[in-house]
Amino acid sequence: MRVARAEFIKSAFERSHWPHDKRPEIAFLGRSNVGKSSLINSLLGRKGLARTSNTPGRTQSINFFLINESITFADLPGYGYAKVPKTMRQEWGKMAEQYLSEREELALGIQLVDSRHEPTKLDKQLHEWLRFNGKPSIIVATKADKLSSNQLRKNISAIENDLSGTPVIAYSSVTGNGRDLLWRAINSAVAEFPK
After folding, report:
1. Given a cut of 70, is residue 82 above it in pLDDT?
2. pTM, rounded to two decimals
3. Mean pLDDT score, 50-69
């Protein structure tokens, strides 16, 4: 997809802040420091639209972006970072679950996992939750440029085994590898979204 326009809309800390424009939404989900902001910037061909941080656990809201006046990207808080207070982690979990459960505009959930490591317990829980609740989703294995092609193939196979039943796309925000495949999945989900 050619991205002619991409803009930050708002940060939502509670449901009343969610956009009300009924556009199909693509949600980005994953552990803190899995590379969500980098992937969004790479996918859109924009530097710094989604803010990256050296401090995992920094995103505490759902950040919404409008793409080509037709699709909304929702960047959800990262999960699983131990150095933030437990109450804060619980709040983020509630916010994410409420969004995923109740958001009628959700066309696709993109779950990010780190291609260099096995999926964590929290990765598996999110995957099971999405499957159990019948949410359309795919898995993107980030940081693919940090592995040899042999090791990457092996790790993708292990991820597919651990998180069965959901397609896995290897992605590098550095090289853009996987970008076309991911856009294809997004465009397909948007095309199938009820108008």
Report:
1. no
2. 0.91
3. 74
The full DSSP string for 93-118 is: HHHHHHHHHH-TTEEEEEEEEETTSP
CA 56, 28, 36, 143 dihedral sign is: positive
Letter for the amino acid at 151? Q
Q: CA 62, CA 143: separation in Å to the nearest integer? A: 23
- The percentage of residues in the chain with a pLDDT greater than 90, rounded to a whole number, is 67
Residues 6+ apart with CB under 8 A from 85: none
DSSP E strands in 1-105: the ranges are: 6-12, 25-30, 62-67, 71-75
Q: Which domains does the chain have, with CATH numbers?
A: 6-192 (3.40.50.300)
Q: Are 22 and 187 in contact (CB under 8 A)?
A: no
